[in-house]
Automatic annotation (TrEMBL):
Stretches assigned to the ABC3 transporter permease C-terminal domain: 270-390, 732-848
Residue ranges of the TM segments: 265-291, 318-340, 360-382, 410-431, 437-459, 493-516, 724-753, 778-798, 818-838
Keywords: Cell membrane, Membrane, Transmembrane, Transmembrane helix
Domain MacB-like periplasmic core: 17-233, 492-698
Name under which the protein is recorded: FtsX-like permease family protein
Membrane topology: Multi-pass membrane protein
Lineage: Bacteria, Bacillati, Actinomycetota, Actinomycetes, Kitasatosporales
Pfam annotation, one family: FtsX
Localization per record: Cell membrane
Family: Belongs to the ABC-4 integral membrane protein family.
Keyword Lipid biosynthesis appears in the UniProt entry: no
InterPro entries (UniProt xref): ABC3_permease_C, MacB_PCD, Macrolide_Exporter_MacB
GO CC annotation: plasma membrane
Length: 855
């Protein structure tokens, strides 16, 4: 049996190759994602471990800020002297480092990274742990001198002697580049500008006598943990954050983890799609191979092979296929990881391919996924093979493999489909986002499974409709292609299912994204009343001088400021919620249309008051007149009175969770030194909107990080952000289509082999090569369009349900992108034509007499 299994595997290696490609793709994404994330993690662990001070003293921060206020928290520089007297301290250094800066050249072009990495202005001092070393020029001495990192200098063509402008929180200032510093470790992609410490304090923090942190070197023989205890005892517990080098590295790695998780989950999403679609391909391939080998299996049974041996034989073939696919996938995964490492280099993160990490988890995961998926997918065909009777050796192979009723599929599909439909109905009727999301996920899984199970039952009615015009347009060739697709519903259903999965995904996400876009458009129309919004390109705060420049622009009338602050509110139900609140000027009603359930803008923005979303208030037992404790950064606390409740479709635009906002007096009192995040600007009387825009753009030319947007620009910004998600979905769809095409090619190729004698007879009675190719292409097209119709129908249902979940968050508009749907159906027909090219060509080249004589 082992010899027979190996010979069978080698005899069908060409037919199994396409199935192996599906396994290879899925394993490649799993292996590539693990190798890349392990490499980045190891690289940055070394970076953080080698550059962190033994102990670091930082401002205390109990708030998890998602939207920076622009206020830089500091520690008194004087505590460095107290720390220096602690037993076990070898040395101390003042750190002055600020990320929310912009550096521009003489043409007002930013010299910072464009990939989302920060531009960091920091004080210059040299220790053994410095991530850079001075390689040309000299260190900065006094105001007006600075160093820049070598990578930024090369990319932006900055040379020693050039003058740059640094736009920082206290104001803009010019520096002359007097030296270049080169990274001695991995460059994380940031741009670095170094100033001497006194200049950094004055220009970046606005005053001397403070620092953003204090780095402490331990004396020989003193551990970091012991030194931390001693410094904490000296400074007082809870006054400052005191962290060891390991804790600093762990904190930095945790921040990096969010970036890594995005890449890892995206790649695992691709792997999941490849696995899911590949399962259909493998099941179909083995089912067809077993149907073609019915006589062979019957002979094995007649010669004494029992059911277990036949089943084991088929599963051994599947295991061999999984091993081959996993090995190729692991190699492809290493190549994919290398490509990602090189891509990070383009974005400024200089990883070294020679330090690539391939841990034991990677190959184990690769083979578990590859062999496991193939084994599971081949199990049902293997059971079917074990059921072949010895008498099948005397029967026609194709007839022996057909004729099984679909009653069981019908019952199971109906039950699972009913459960899925019930879950989706529950999702639509739910009033809580959490329960609606859970029901949506359950409904999506169950309806997908039900459609796959019941797919063969839908083949005959749907394909009769889809191919109904074939006989009229293509005559007998069209009729034969339609009947070929109807001949084996199981095979057609399984082939179409691979395409259906990808198209269901893209259909659902297209509806969801179109609905989100339409909802945001309506929300912007409804709430934004200003002529223009001045914002940073990445929504970070900008310096106060920008606000003043806008106010001084000729033709600018009302200017309303928006400023964010991280807060934690203690609510009557006992919960402490960390979120972001916003502060506004008193004229908010002139630039925004806020709908209130209780109170008004004057109440909300009065000193000592706060407003919140009515739904959030109801969930936490808050009423108008309630007094709630609010924690601000740097340990500042306030008792604010809830004076207004908003009833917006979406409160997210006026704060984050809870829709909290208050007056500018409040935010300036508790978050002093903050920066504005947006300016809402109306044109003065007598100034046209177009004129004001051109003047504002001229005013803001020295500040390339800040843009002027009207309503149309704001809508486009939202569309662009949603488009990023859509591009990911389209990429997943592309992968699903690639594997689905492999499935259609495999099905048609095996079908051609299965129908060799039939094709020979058709050719003998006058069917031309061209007609034969057309017949196979039409069969492929109708199968592909059948998969598209099922997938889009399922996707539309999912998309509507997703929109209902979004409606609970205020996004109530439903939009269906009919253009995308029509394009997908047309594209599916093209996919069918492409997939049929090779099988049709092979069929047309058959020798007629050899085909007729084929067994």
């Amino acid at each position: 049996m082992l010899k027979a299994t190996l010979r069978s595997f080698l005899a069908h290696k060409g037919r199994l190759l396409l199935s192996a490609l599906a396994v290879t793709l899925s394993v490649a994404f799993v292996a590539g994602s693990l190798i890349f994330s392990d490499t980045v993690t190891r690289t940055f662990d070394r970076l953080f471990a080698s550059t962190s001070a033994d102990v670091t003293v930082l401002p205390r921060d109990d708030l998890d800020s998602q939207m920076p206020s622009g206020a830089t928290e500091t520690v008194p520089a004087s505590i460095a002297d107290r720390i220096a007297r602690v037993d076990g301290v070898a040395d101390t250094h003042l750190d002055v480092s600020v990320e929310n800066v912009t550096v521009v050249d003489r043409d007002n072009e930013s010299v910072g990274p464009t990939t989302g990495a920060p531009t960091i202005a920091t004080g210059w001092y040299v220790t053994e742990r410095s991530p850079v070393e001075l390689t040309s020029g000299h260190a900065p001495k006094g105001p007006g001198e600075a160093l820049i990192d070598a990578d930024t200098a090369d990319k932006k063509d900055v040379r020693i002697g050039d003058t740059l402008t640094v736009i920082a929180q206290p104001g803009s200032f010019k520096v002359k580049i007097v030296g270049i510093a080169t990274f001695t470790t991995t460059n994380p992609g940031a741009a670095l500008v170094f100033l001497d410490i006194p200049t950094a304090q004055k220009e970046l923090l606005g005053r001397t006598g403070v620092a953003t942190s204090i780095a402490v070197d331990a004396a020989d023989g003193v551990s970091d943990a012991v030194l931390k205890q001693r410094i904490t005892a000296e400074l007082g517990s809870g006054t400052y954050e005191v962290e060891t080098a390991d804790e600093q590295a762990e904190s930095a790695t945790a921040q990096l983890g969010g970036f890594l998780d995005v890449i890892k989950y995206v790649m695992l999403g691709f792997a999941g799609i490849a696995v899911l679609v590949g399962v259909f391909l493998i099941v179909n391939t083995f089912s067809m191979l077993i149907a073609q080998r019915t006589r062979e299996l019957g002979l094995l049974r007649a010669l004494g092979a029992d059911r277990r041996q036949v089943r084991r034989s088929v599963l051994t073939e599947a295991t061999l296929l999984g091993l081959v696919g996993s090995t190729l996938g692991l190699a492809a995964g290493i190549g994919l990881a290398l490509g990602l490492i090189e891509l990070m280099g383009v974005f400024g993160m200089n990883l070294k391919s020679t330090e690539m990490v391939i841990g034991w988890v990677t190959p184990v995961s690769a083979y578990v996924v590859g062999v496991g998926v193939t084994f599971v997918a081949a199990y049902l065909p293997a059971r079917r093979a074990a059921g072949v009777s010895p008498m099948a050796a005397l029967a026609d192979a194709e007839i022996a493999g057909m004729g099984r009723p679909l009653r069981v599929r019908a019952v199971v599909g109906l039950i699972v489909g009913a459960l899925g439909a019930a879950a989706l109905v529950g999702c639509v009727t739910a009033t809580e986002t959490a329960s609606a999301s859970s029901l949506l996920l359950l409904g999506v899984v169950l309806t997908l499974v039900a459609t796959v199970i019941a797919g063969p039952l839908l083949v005959r009615p749907v394909i009769r409709v889809l191919g109904g015009l074939f006989p009229a347009v293509f005559g007998s060739i069209g009729r034969m292609s339609q009947r070929n697709a109807l001949r084996n519903p199981r095979r057609t259903g399984a082939t179409a299912a691979a395409l259906m999965v990808g198209l269901a995904l893209v259909g659902g996400m297209s509806v969801a994204s179109a609905s989100m876009t339409e909802s945001f458009d309506q929300q912007i129309d409804k709430t934004l009343g200003a002529d223009f919004v001045v914002q940073n390109s990445n929504f970070l705060p900008f310096p106060q001088e920008v606000t003043q420049k806008v106010r001084d622009t000729d033709g600018a009338g009302l200017v309303v400021r928006q400023r964010f602050a991280p807060v934690a509110v203690r609510l009557p139900d006992g919960k402490r919620v960390k979120t972001t609140a916003a502060g506004y000027d008193a004229q908010l009603d002139d630039v925004a249309h806020v709908t209130y359930a209780q109170g008004d803008t004057a109440d909300a923005l009065a000193p000592g008051n706060i407003a919140m979303d009515a739904g959030f208030a109801k969930d936490h037992d808050v009423r108008v007149g309630s007094t709630i404790p609010v924690d601000f950064p740097a340990g500042r606390k306030a008792e604010l009175t809830v004076a207004a409740l908003t009833d917006q479709d979406s409160a997210e635009g006026f704060g984050m969770q809870g829709g909290l906002y208050f007056g500018f007096e409040t935010i300036e009192r508790y978050v002093p030194g903050g920066q504005d995040s947006a300016l809402y600007v109306n044109a003065a009387s007598g100034t046209s909107v177009d004129t004001l825009r051109s003047r504002l753009e001229k005013t803001l030319d020295p500040y390339p990080q800040v843009q002027v947007r009207d309503q149309a620009d704001y809508k486009q910004l939202v569309r662009d952000q949603i488009a990023v998600l859509l591009y990911l979905v389209y990429a997943l769809l592309g992968l699903a289509i690639v594997i689905a095409v492999l499935g259609v090619v495999n099905t048609l190729a095996l079908s051609v082999v299965e129908r060799t004698r039939e094709i020979g007879l058709l050719r003998a009675i006058g069917l031309s090569r061209r007609q034969l190719r057309r017949m196979i292409r039409l069969e492929s097209v109708v199968i592909a369009v059948f998969g598209a119709v099922l997938g889009l129908a399922l996707g539309l249902v999912w998309g509507v349900c997703v929109q209902q979940v979004l409606a609970l968050q205020g996004m109530k508009a439903l939009a269906i992108p009919w253009g995308t749907i029509i394009a997908v159906v047309v594209g599916s027909a093209v996919v069918g034509i492409v997939a049929a090219l090779l099988p049709a060509l092979r069929a047309s080249r058959m020798n007629v007499l050899a085909a007729i004589a084929h067994e």
